[in-house]
Amino acid sequence: MARRLTTRGFERRDVSAVFDLDRATVEAAHWPRSEYERLAGSSPLALVTEKAGGAIVAFLIARRAAGEVEILNLAVCGRLRRKGIASALLSRLFEKL
Q: To the nearest whole percent, how much of the chain has pLDDT over 90?
C-alpha cells in the first residue's frame, strides 16, 4: 500500500472531499451529497483513507443487512489505484465486524 496513509471513520469534515471523489470516480455509486452528510459520523461501517496532511484518497461505505455485510460504495483516487488501498479499507472493515 502507498506509504503514509491512514484509514479512519468517515466524519462530517470529510463530506466535501468524499463527495468530490465520488464525482471523480466513474465506478462510484454517485449518491447525492445529502446521503454522505447523513452517513458522516453516524455509520461505524463508513471509512476514509487519507494522506498525511489530510487529503482524502479513498472511501468505503457498507452496511449490515440480514446477517451479512454489503458494500454500498467504494472509491479510490485514480492515481493511487492498484496500490492496495481498497484492500486495506476492506481489511479495516473486517476488523470492525
A: 81
Task: Give long-range contacts, CB 8 A cutoff, 24+ apart: 59-64.
Answer: 59/10, 59/14, 59/18, 59/21, 59/22, 59/89, 60/86, 60/89, 60/90, 60/93, 61/10, 62/93
C-alpha cell at 38: 447523513
3-state secondary structure of 1: coil
Q: Side-chain half-sphere of 68: how many Cα atoms within 13 Å?
A: 4
Q: What is the DSSP letter of 13?
A: G
pTM for the predicted model, two decimal places: 0.91
DSSP character at residue 81: T
